[in-house]
Amino acid sequence: MQVATTSGKYSVKHYPDIIQSWKKEGNYFYFYTSTTILELRVISDKIVRFRYAADGQFQRDFSYAVSEKLEESPEFFDIREWADSFEIITTAIRVFVARENLRITITDTDGRIINQDETGFHWQYYLQKGGKIVYCTKLVQEGESFYGLGDKPTELNLRGKRVENYGTDAYGYAKDTDPLYRNIPFYYGLHNGIGYGIFFDNTFRTLFDFGKEREDVTSFWARGGEMNYYFIYGPALLQVAESYARITGTAELPPLWALGYHQCRWSYYPESKVREVAKEFRDRKIPCDALYLDIDYMEGFRCFTWSKESFPDPKALLKDLSAQGFKTVVIIDPGIKVDPDYPIYQEITQKDFACKRADGAYMEGDVWPGKCVFPDFTDPKVREWWSGLFKDLTATGVRGVWNDMNEPAVFELGTFPEDVRHDYDGENVSHRKAHNVYGHLMSKATAAGLKKHLMPQRPFVITRSAYSGTQRWSSVWTGDNIASWEHLWLASVQCQRLAVSGLSFAGSDIGGFIGEPDGELYTRWIQLGTFHPLMRTHSASNETGFNQDPWSFGPEFEAVVKSFIQLRYRLLPYIYTTFWQYAAYGTPMLRPLAFVAQQDENTHDLNHEFMLGDSLLISHVSEAGMTEKSVYLPEGTWYYYFNDQRYTGGQAVTIPTPLAEMPLFVKGGAVVAQYPDMQYVGEFKIMEMIQQVYFAEGTTHSILYEDAGDHYGYKTGQYNLVRFKQSSEPNLFRLKKKFVGKYNADYTHHRIRVHGLPFTPKEYVLDGVTAPLQPEHFVDGVVELNLLRKFEELVIR
Ligand code: MIG
Fold it and tell me: Does the pTM exceed 0.70?
């Protein structure tokens, strides 16, 4: 055993030595050196977990991130002994463990290196705070790019950067501010066409360096806890994303209305103001589903109360809003006001549910209500109690809850001091270990309460802080951004990064939270937000009284903003299908182009383009007065959405960007389902489904998922999965449809619109019955058929 020469806070670095023995227990392998045990667990043919006990003693194997549904399914695995290493083999990868020092090399079955330790696992004693700082260093492979890590406001490819996870209330953050609100210790590597992922499940402050300190080395480390990481092989990056979701869980389907448009402000109050906003939306026929009440709806910022003056009869208000199709979302912060007359404060102190300092005093800190105490959400009893508090709110008519300030944020202090104690599901730890999961567990308790009390309606939760796995119960937004063009770019990269980090259900404060956008910036931001899974305008602007509403910028901008919010509603069946793919398989809803075409190196450093789902490619207009934009199209056929101009991929194309348009392309071969225009989800029974079909040579596939858009019937088969197969021959187009499921949709009309046919057809054949095409079937260069029944096969020739 090496003796540490110590100076100051940390000991020297220690490294594992020679493997002395090993054993196998089921799918677990253990390798013993004189100081260290490596536990290697084969979870599936592509997922292996590495865990190291530096002093021969493992800690409790417990995780707030890992889904209860994670099942082990290694189809086949084996171990071979070599002179210098042990080799663990699965059907997809080979893991070599060096006898000399536990260093890991992982290859595919062809022997190509996927990932390789440099010095690998090592540690330092954290003399000042206790425990160890645990490190893992790996070699950067040639041409390697790195992605992931949650909400980092920087270029998507993290090569050459160092980032850190310790959730922070980053008011008015800028490009490269770090850390921000979320803690997602998960990254992807991509080199030589091979993609893999590493999920470092450690809740202490974690750091990742991607060749910044030393060009050829990537390392990750934590200021405590264990070196415990999952290695995930792709080779496709999207497969890595799906495996990560298998580990940390998938989202549930939200109510369909939550995919509509949300309007928020700090704050709409009193009640007359809320009614006025609601009326404006309906009078102007701008679709909207959700209205938010920020902190001013409460009585002196006391959670679970309503201001008697501003909201004297919340139940009546929410009922009226609901009659107009609005769902109300209210904010709930963690801080509970210290006030002996406030029932929640009485309860939290009586039950002893508030966080305490090391010496037993309450963790007190100022937030909006003044001096507060804070629930210890790491205690299961506290989570249970918190969930129960949503009974009254839901009875009042609340349909969604917004959890803010849960990094946790405290005025002056920033966050809790490190000595604060937490239960951590029975472990009894300091804030150092609990900090990064505080918001994760608050939103978990909130979602559980909302789900229970809203049953059979689906809940909607949005949280500011998060840890890996938060996607199982909540959406997120990117926090307190600024009304600037740079922040529009940040919104785009942050939502893409969140999506590949497991948190697809994300959006930015459209228009910017701080400051006031002009009409042009707001309109361009609405355009981008139309293609973000969560579409919400939010702003502060309390001093000037400026309202960031879709009509705040005059009729010219209002008309364009309205047209994009309408487009959002038309696209709901497509967006819902994309959400279903995410909920079912963990496929990111937003896909950076590197994830769509990883073999094409031109995509690896692209920041400003992404796909929403399988068929839509989006960029955004990124500067004031911009008249054209260059967009890189990956291989395939693409149609510019606004005029059906056809492009061949594998090149950059430049398109004009008048205010009423944006860079939006549809992939050839796609079937994009659309609804007719509506003001809100549930406004009327949908009687017509529109299928926008985009021609491509060869054979292509698309899907449509549909269900009731709320409730849980889909879990017992009340859904439809429609599979479209498009195939073409010279002068012939064929569309086949197959159904699975037993949901009875209302619509009886099917409008099929075929874009981009390269020939002039004369007739169509519907399930074997031929009819001629008439002039009215040719609309704006599109062949349009209005069918009054379902069909299985349509041929146009
Ligand atoms: O200290 O509730 O990010 O969206 O409007 C500010 C007031 C507290 C921060 C949130 C913002 C919200 C605001 N909150």
Answer: yes
